[in-house]
């Protein structure tokens, strides 16, 4: 519903009540209308795509939860930059592959800002480049624990809190998949590619399951993006080496992925759910 107010009709007084903005001294008919504050939780936001998404979210008016696992200093720097620009942010450490830590992450986030209205399941890892036959079970478990089960755990916490069926405000979830799910990453990270294929399918199923509960679920599938993840796979020059495979003839910037994520979360994408959006320069 769209509210139309004539100028001079009313001058609202605004108060924060448990994370929502409540108009307290409007005309009687409009009293107690709740306008939800926009709160976003981004996993793995201490660097790369997550950090770029955190900074852009703050620009777009979100209070930002900057999750990290190891690099608390980096996360604190992202928070500092947001505060410097007049935004709201907090850094919260949690390993998203651990159920208890994920629950505590959401509890701390909510006690700080109120209900989370957007989740970006961004945290993800790769192993060192390797052929499939050389890979260990321990490695597969590590990759899937973060990339798949970590995303599941965070999405479950988010859905339980956002769902209008449980009295929540609704919201949006964006999963960060990878173009690897379409290519398979042979001789490099077949396990990682398979984990991202799971993220794609999870996106489709969850979107249908919670559509009636006020939650939209989408994914982005980045191509070669210039971040530190490639160094963690033992190939820091990977984007430069492979960029000629990209029709746009360059690697992508984390900020370009962040733009797609924020669009999917925005009201401009209000009719978009269950969609996996490639952000890959045409590859
Ligand atoms: P990155 O620079 O390596 O950053 C990874 C982030 O994830 C870091 O903030 C890291 O936190 C966090 N993280 C890792 N494991 C975690 C865990 N268990 N719990 C909480 N946080 C954890 O990676 P990126 O390139 O920005 O990638 C972000 C996402 O995009 C990933 O899902 C990745 O698969 C996907 N992606 C990237 C590319 C690319 O070319 N860069 C392409 C396709 C898809 P700490 O540093 O604090 O440990």
Detailed description of the structure:
The protein is α/β, with parallel strands linked by helices and 283 residues long. The protein folds into two domains: 1-35, no CATH class; 37-279, NAD(P)-binding Rossmann-like Domain (Rossmann fold, 3-Layer(aba) Sandwich). The protein is 40% helix and 17% strand. The chain is built from nine helices and ten strands. The strands form two sheets. The chain has a seven-stranded parallel β-sheet with strand order 6-5-4-7-8-9-10, with helices on both faces. Helix 4 links the parallel strand 7 (118-121) and strand 8. Helix 1 crosses helix 9. The longest helix is centred in the middle third of the chain and has 26 residues, at 137-162. It is globular, with a radius of gyration of 20 Å. NADP nicotinamide-adenine-dinucleotide phosphate is lined by residues 43-44, 46-50, 67-71, 95-97, 122-125, 146, 150, 176, 178, 222, 224-225, 227-229, 232.
Primary descriptors:
283 residues; alpha/beta; Rossmann fold; 2 domains; 7-stranded parallel β-sheet; 3-stranded antiparallel β-sheet; 10 strands; disordered N terminus; binds NADP nicotinamide-adenine-dinucleotide phosphate
